[in-house]
């Protein structure tokens, strides 16, 4: 019976992490909420679970954006080796993604533990969700004019610092980066693509830094189940979110964040 409960717990956490990771409602906030409401949690030092969930979501993003990644890599390489001007935009996209990765990378390495400890608890999560909801509400009707070819290094840095803000538990990474991208005039499609291409180096960095801490031990089966559920639901969730972005329906995520944030403040 105990083994079944462990399987169910990790299956639930994997599904929850996978579904909430791509959409702008904060996966970290929902994991805290699950802990408060259901008493379901993973030990703080369970780096194996954290790395696997990151890897599952990363695979989903790689699968969905595989054509963009191949084009950027091939054309970017051609620009470097052959100086083909028509491929400059893809090369610059690589530059901008590297540039946008720096703020969260540096701030995360220096202050992640301090941020996590300072914003620990259910009330900061609620406030962060309300902030996320407000930000989504403010940009809900923006369409933007900037495509991939119109981006600048300033745009990349602004989105990069927005990603660093998402180190605060309860602030959605996808929400922060998409809000910043749309706020500076990016088209919805460009904002979404840039946000999730930017997720790739961040996720890879997390995996590389913590991969030596992986120890499956007796948890191999629960981890595999959680991984598969997280992978499948991350893929489905991101595809679903892409459709919502295309239709300009971000306001519904704002409503959701308001509802969850207020529920936490008044009832937990």
Automatic annotation (TrEMBL):
Coiled coil, from the record: none
Topological relation to the membrane, as annotated: Multi-pass membrane protein
Enzymatic reactions: di-trans,octa-cis-undecaprenyl diphosphate + H2O = di-trans,octa-cis-undecaprenyl phosphate + phosphate + H(+)
Enzyme Commission number(s) of this protein: 3.6.1.27
Other observations noted: Bacitracin is thought to be involved in the inhibition of peptidoglycan synthesis by sequestering undecaprenyl diphosphate, thereby reducing the pool of lipid carrier available.
Function: Catalyzes the dephosphorylation of undecaprenyl diphosphate (UPP). Confers resistance to bacitracin.
The protein's name: Undecaprenyl-diphosphatase
Species, as recorded: Bacillus carboniphilus
Gene transcribed to yield this protein: uppP
């Amino acid at each position: 019976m105990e083994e079944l409960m462990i399987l169910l717990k990790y299956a639930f956490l994997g599904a929850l992490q996978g579904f909430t990771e791509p959409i702008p409602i904060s996966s970290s906030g929902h994991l805290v909420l699950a802990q408060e409401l259901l008493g379901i949690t993973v030990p703080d030092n369970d780096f194996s679970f954290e790395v696997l969930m990151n890897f599952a979501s990363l695979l989903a993003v790689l699968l969905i954006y595989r054509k963009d990644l191949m084009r950027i890599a091939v054309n970017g390489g051609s620009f470097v080796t052959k100086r083909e001007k028509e491929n400059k935009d893809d090369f610059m996209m690589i530059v901008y993604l590297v540039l946008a990765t720096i703020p969260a990378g540096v701030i995360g390495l220096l202050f992640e533990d301090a941020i996590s400890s300072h914003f620990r608890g259910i009330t900061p999560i609620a406030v962060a969700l309300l902030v996320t909801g407000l930000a989504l509400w403010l940009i809900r009707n923006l369409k933007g004019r900037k495509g991939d070819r119109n981006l600048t290094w300033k745009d990349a840095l602004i989105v990069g610092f927005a990603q660093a803000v998402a180190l605060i538990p309860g602030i959605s990474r996808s929400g922060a980066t998409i809000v910043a991208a749309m706020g500076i005039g990016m088209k919805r499609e460009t904002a979404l693509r840039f946000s999730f291409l930017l997720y790739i180096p961040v996720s890879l960095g997390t995996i590389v830094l913590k991969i030596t801490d992986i120890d499956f031990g007796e948890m191999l089966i629960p981890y595999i189940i959680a991984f598969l559920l997280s992978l499948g639901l991350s893929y489905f969730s991101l595809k679903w979110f892409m459709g919502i972005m295309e239709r300009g329906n971000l306001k519904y995520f704002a409503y959701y964040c308001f509802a969850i944030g207020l529920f936490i403040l008044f009832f937990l």
